[in-house]
Amino acid sequence: MRIFNKRAATFQTHAVSHPLTYHTARGGGGASFPDWFRRCFVPLQIVCGPPGAGKSTYVRDCAAQGERIICFDTIAEKIMGKPRPKLTPQQIGLVLRERNDQLGDLMRSSALKRWHGAWLIISAPERERRQGLFDKLCPRTIIVLTTPATECKRRVRLDKARTDVSETDAVIDRWWGAYSPRTGDCVVENYQTWAKAI
Fold first, then answer.
1. pTM flag (> 0.70)
2. Which domain, by its residues, includes 158?
């Protein structure tokens, strides 16, 4: 395991947050990791971690102009027209299909004309899941924010748009219960040092 600070890691949806997305959203038809995933032509970096770890803040801080950011939560908010929407299985499927379409675009050589790079924000606590993403999408690196659960929960309570605090706390606990290190991950510890207030 390699441990990087924020600057060093810059060279290089979410399944646990929404349990129904882990394989296929029942009734929605959108697979979280479809078989057709393959190598991305656009240089990709994947950022993983529990809710409240600072994934979105990290990507905002590190992404350069002209790089695409793909995030389940952001897509859900755009589709539903409100922050932190509660999703039905059908809606989860819609969001996953849109996210997968965005990833699919990066798998076309023509995408290099549109994007200099790309970032995928996802939960992915399991080593096997991150290895699968690495093998299929061939990202430059996978960055894991191992922000402590207590700090994640504190940030969740600062987010006024969240109405499901206790549920999110449980998701954070499940993430840490499922987390397993993977050789080759860029692990960013104590990201709360850099994370901006929510």
1. yes
2. 2-193
